[in-house]
UniProtKB/TrEMBL annotation:
CDD domains: PheRS_beta_core (cd00769), tRNA_bind_bactPheRS (cd02796). Mg(2+) binds at residues 460, 466, 469-470. Tetramer of two alpha and two beta subunits. This is Phenylalanine--tRNA ligase beta subunit. It is found in: Cytoplasm. PROSITE patterns: B5, FDX_ACB, TRBD. Residues 406-484 form the B5 domain. It comes from Baekduia soli. Belongs to the phenylalanyl-tRNA synthetase beta subunit family. Type 1 subfamily. It catalyses: tRNA(Phe) + L-phenylalanine + ATP = L-phenylalanyl-tRNA(Phe) + AMP + diphosphate + H(+). GO terms for cellular component: phenylalanine-tRNA ligase complex. The keyword Protein biosynthesis applies. Its EC number is 6.1.1.20.
Length: 808
């Protein structure tokens, strides 16, 4: 939310600098996101001028040569293209050297041969409005040469706040002023609704009916006669512009101004265009169309609310008004509506229609019904001041809240509990001061305070802990660092947490960088990963209230977020990547309807892209990411966790055929590893991608949590190599497994590794030679050939059973 600092100071003006105010508000929970400079670059060079003459430019039909008194010894000659410039006007002038809102420094110029020493300014050239149809003519301005900053709000600081969803009261400038008052102790001015020029009672000119009272707690309206539509005064347009809104006309500007000031949206109807003079709030019909103020026709469903007159819907309740009854230049009678709506319904409507507005963004957070009448009273005062209107007797106030106002809760705030939760005592007087500043009412009790919650905090403060937060958040810098009391709780990680940390450390230790991707994704990711229709990873858990279409379902694999991160980095020149992520994945239940909770487990995935090492003068073309690079990274994880694992050839739709495998731990598959399929890599604008993903929960469950140690032996190992010729389709892992099984009983086989692969014409077509390095070792003696030979014979026989022939 953008808050012009001068507007904020109109309600609360602390005697501290802006930077200190930022810090205090942010520490108290009202986070200042940024401070923007709005308007001109500085006051120097901007003055009040008096047009002494305005003659036609000799060489340009649309320009006039003006002589302007700017308070100096000699008048300035300024060439102006505004159609309304004339002698005798008091105007805003920018002199050479003045810095305009876009940062341009004004210089003397020659326009069609005539010297121009400055500019006569329109509203938009000072960023205090959007009008560029002509120059501003100042009324009741001081003498020529006076600083323009004394006449117009030509520069200001705008504070941008990040308002949390539980504080819709801070979406109004007076709500922010209340926070400033509590944080600094500066005086708080009365609210803009302190004086109500209207009256209660029935209204003869209009009527309101609510057919959906469960979704509309309160609907208020007043009728204004004799309205004159015109531009708003400069101060109002300047504040709206600084707050990020475009001035339109005085009536519409009043509704926007009061919304920004009070936090509650309003809507103005042209009463003469409201058929029958009656409005009805009802649920829409399925497929019912409504033309909104933006000129678009929206198709509604039965869970949305409309406001209709005798001829049909005029607006979508709480979201946007309709085109048929909007205020125009011919409007003379206005029906001003300020209503309260149920937040979740407005949020659903806005999301389903893809239509967000300033109003819907406020209503969906749950505004209090009390705020509706406050906004109505503030707007009434401005309507009378700025439109020349008179307010008709009475106020329409209908709905369940109008019939029986909701109670405001009273909570006990105990001093002992405050100290226990915050770690330090907060004096009762300090608690009272802070709570009163925030709009709460208090009464003394034996052990603390009885606190009455104001209506605008009803949805946020409902228990004692919430009150403790309110009295503690303004002293966060003084609170001691303490740990809460937790009986029986151990301050260390569980076994599973330690093992997961060990796995992550293994990946980090090999140069990979961790990412944290969204747990949400889009259903279309299944097609980009080429998942089959029966693939369990297509069983997405749909979000009831998604943030966007790209985050509509929960992810079933980490691969999508890894590829998104790789594409983001590669597109910015960082193509050599080693990324990993650990996080939850979710697969929907097979139940129909799917009422059961989804299957959820923690997964660990990694991605390699591009080169696996930087180029050097010795290695100009390093190896690129491939199956074996990914398998090596996977081995680092699984070996660190001391699990017995293996890989078997397998086909995954998103992996390259023949360059992929499934990962086994024990007697079950826990994941996959391989190179990415070229079609999938192309969908993410990548190439040379190798990946793996494992079910980390299952791997951790099989891991050796307690390390066991084996005595080192001083007796040397014996290595013997076997060159075995087999067909190309025989997997090396099958030979290693057969050899290991054959030598297992002897207890002498220390290791078996494939150290070389050879193919050549002398072996024949479709044949390969694998060099196996066999390591034998005993803990109690030096082995002899007589010890090793029988074991070696059994291994050779086992290799022959797999189709292997000894070479040489």
């Amino acid at each position: 939310m953008r808050v012009p600092y001068a507007w904020l100071r109109a309600y609360c003006a602390p005697d501290i600098g802006l930077s200190e105010l930022e810090e205090r508000l942010t520490l108290s929970g009202t986070k200042v996101e940024a401070v923007h400079h709005h308007g001109v670059g500085g006051p120097d060079g901007f003055v009040v001028g008096k047009v002494l003459s305005a003659e036609q430019h000799p060489d340009a039909d649309r320009l006039k040569v003006c002589i302007v008194d700017v308070g100096e010894d000699e008048p300035a000659q300024i060439v102006c293209g505004a159609p309304n410039v004339a002698a005798g006007q008091t105007v805003a002038v920018a002199r050479p050297g003045a810095v305009m809102p876009d940062g341009t420094r004004l210089k003397k110029a020659r326009l069609r041969g005539q010297e121009s020493a400055g500019m006569i300014l329109a509203e938009d050239e000072l960023a205090i409005g959007g009008d560029h149809s002509g120059i501003m003519v100042l009324d009741d301005a001081p003498a020529a040469g006076a600083p323009l900053v004394d006449v117009l709000p030509i520069l200001d600081e705008v504070i941008e706040f990040e308002i949390t969803p539980n504080r819709p009261d801070c979406l109004g400038i007076y709500g922010i002023a209340r926070e400033v008052h509590a944080a600094t102790g500066a005086l708080l001015a009365p609210p803009p609704w302190a004086h109500d020029p209207g009256s209660t009672g029935p209204v003869d000119a209009a009527a309101i009916t609510i057919d959906a009272p469960d979704l509309c707690p309160r609907f208020t309206a007043r009728v204004f006669e004799g309205v004159t539509i015109g531009p708003s005064p400069g101060w109002l347009k300047a504040r709206l512009t600084a707050a990020g809104m475009r001035p339109i006309n005085n009536v519409v500007d009043i509704t926007n101004y009061v919304m920004l000031e009070t936090g509650h949206p309003l809507h103005a109807f042209d009463l003469d265009r409201v058929a029958g003079g009656t409005l009805t709030v009802r649920r829409a019909r399925d497929g019912e169309p409504v033309e909104t103020l933006d000129g678009q026709t929206r198709v509604l469903d039965a869970e949305m609310l409309v406001i209709e007159d005798a001829e049909g819907p005029t607006s979508i309740a709480g979201v946007m008004g309709g085109a048929r009854s909007e205020v125009s230049d011919t409007t003379t009678r206005v029906l001003l509506e300020v209503a309260s709506w149920v937040g979740p319904n407005i949020h659903r409507t806005s999301t389903r229609l893809g239509l967000r507005s300033e109003a819907s963004g406020r209503f969906e957070k749950g505004l209090a019904p009390e705020q509706a009448m406050e906004a109505q009273q503030a707007a009434t005062r401005l309507m009378l001041e700025l439109t020349g209107a008179t307010v008709a007797p009475g106020t329409i106030d209908v709905g369940p809240f109008a019939e029986e106002p909701w109670p405001t809760p009273t909570l006990r705030l105990r001093e002992q509990k405050v100290q226990a939760l915050l770690g330090m005592p907060i004096p009762r007087a300090r608690q009272t001061t802070l709570l009163h500043a925030l709009g709460f009412a208090t009464a003394d009790a034996d052990d603390g305070l009885d606190v009455t919650v104001p209506g605008f905090r009803r949805n946020d403060v409902s228990r004692e802990a919430d009150l403790i937060e309110e009295v503690g958040r303004f002293d966060l810098d003084r609170l001691p660092a303490t740990l809460p009391k937790r009986r029986g709780a151990a301050g260390r990680m569980s076994t599973a947490q330690r093992l997961r940390r060990r796995a992550v450390d293994a990946v980090v230790g090999r140069g990979a960088h961790e990412i944290v991707g969204w747990s949400f994704t889009e259903p279309a990711v299944a097609d980009r990963l080429r998942l089959g229709e029966d693939d369990p990873r297509r069983r997405f858990v749909a979000m009831t209230n998604p943030m966007s279409e790209d985050h509509a379902v929960l992810r079933t694999t980490l691969l999508g977020s890894l590829l998104d991160a790789a594409r983001h980095n590669a597109a910015r020149g960082a193509g050599d990547l080693a990324l990993f992520e650990q996080g939850a994945v979710y697969v929907a239940s097979r139940a129909h309807p799917p009422t059961a909770l989804p299957h959820e487990h923690r997964a660990l995935g990694a991605l390699l892209h591009g080169r696996t090492a930087p180029a050097t003068w010795r290695t100009r073309e390093p190896a690129r990411a491939d199956f074996f690079a990914a398998k090596g990274l996977l081995a680092a994880v699984l070996d660190t966790l001391r699990v017995a694992w293996s890989v078997e050839p397998a086909a995954e739709p998103f992996l390259h055929p023949g360059r992929s495998a499934e990962v086994w731990v024990g007697d079950g598959v826990v994941g996959w590893v391989g190179e990415l399929h070229p079609l999938v890599a192309r969908a993410w604008d990548l190439e040379d991608v190798a990946v793996f993903e494992i079910d980390l929960d299952r791997v951790v469950a099989a891991a050796d949590a307690v390390p066991t140690y084996r005595d080192l032996t001083s007796f040397p190992p014996v290595r013997q190599d076997l060159a075995v010729v087999v067909d190309d389709d025989v997997a090396a892992s099958d030979l290693v497994s057969a050899a290991r099984a054959a030598g297992l009983k002897s207890g002498l086989v220390h290791g078996i590794e494939v150290v070389d692969v050879y193919r050549g014409a002398q072996l024949g077509e479709g044949r390969k030679s694998l060099l196996l390095a066999l390591t034998f070792q005993a803990p109690d003696r030096t082995l002899t050939d007589e010890d090793v030979a029988p074991v070696r014979e059994r291994i050779v026989a086992a290799l022959a059973a797999e189709g292997g022939e000894l070479r040489g």
